[in-house]
Write a sequence for this structure.
C-alpha cells in the first residue's frame, strides 16, 4: 500500500518530473536486461512497465516496501526491476511452469499513460502539419509557431489574446493566421 501510493505520486507528478524518473528507470532496466542476458527479445520498457504493474498490484512480498525512509524508494524499485528481469530471464529459459497467471492478466494503461500517449499523438500531428507548412508554402514565423503549438492551445483552451501574447503578435493577427490556414488547408485543420 505504501509503495503503491508513493509510485502513484511519482507518476502523477508534473510531466517533466515523471518523464525524467521513467527515463532513468528505462536506462537502469536496459543495464539489468543486458546483465541478465535475456535470450528472447525483452525491451527495457517492458521491464519497467511490468515492475510498475507489480508494485501497484502488490504482486508478492518482493514488491512490498515499508516506506520508513522515503528516499529509499528508488533503490526498492530497482530491486523490483531486478526481480522482474529475473522473471523474464527464467521465462526465456523455459523454467516457469504451471499457471502463467501474469500472461493471463490484462493490464490496462493508467490514466497517466493514456493521457501521455494522447498528448504525444496530438503534438506529433501538429508538428508534422507545421513541417508540411514549411516545406509546401511560403508561410513562416508566427504561422508556423501557431501550428506547432496548436495542440497546446486547444489543450489549455487558450483565448485569442493568450495565443497572441504567446506568439508576440497582435490579437488581430491571430485571426489572419487562422483565415490563411483555413484557406490553405480547409477541412484538414477543422477535423484535426
Amino acid at each position: 500500500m505504501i509503495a503503491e501510493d508513493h509510485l502513484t505520486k511519482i507518476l502523477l507528478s508534473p510531466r517533466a518530473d515523471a518523464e525524467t524518473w521513467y527515463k532513468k528507470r528505462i536506462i537502469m532496466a536496459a543495464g539489468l536486461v543486458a546483465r541478465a542476458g535475456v535470450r528472447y527479445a525483452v525491451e527495457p520498457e517492458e521491464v519497467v512497465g511490468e515492475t510498475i504493474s507489480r508494485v501497484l498490484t502488490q504482486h508478492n512480498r518482493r514488491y512490498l516496501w515499508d516506506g520508513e525512509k522515503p528516499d529509499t524508494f528508488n533503490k526498492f524499485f530497482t530491486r523490483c526491476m531486478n526481480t522482474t528481469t529475473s522473471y523474464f530471464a527464467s521465462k526465456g529459459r523455459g523454467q516457469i511452469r504451471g499457471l502463467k497467471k501474469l500472461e493471463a492478466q490484462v493490464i490496462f494503461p493508467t490514466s497517466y499513460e493514456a493521457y501521455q500517449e494522447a498528448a504525444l499523438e496530438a503534438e506529433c500531428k501538429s508538428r508534422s502539419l507545421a513541417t508540411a507548412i514549411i516545406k509546401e508554402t511560403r508561410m513562416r514565423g508566427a504561422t508556423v509557431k501557431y501550428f506547432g503549438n496548436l495542440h497546446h492551445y486547444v489543450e489549455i483552451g487558450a483565448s485569442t489574446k493568450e495565443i497572441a501574447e504567446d506568439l508576440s503578435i497582435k490579437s488581430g493577427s491571430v485571426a489572419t493566421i487562422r483565415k490563411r490556414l483555413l484557406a490553405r488547408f480547409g477541412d484538414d485543420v477543422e477535423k484535426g
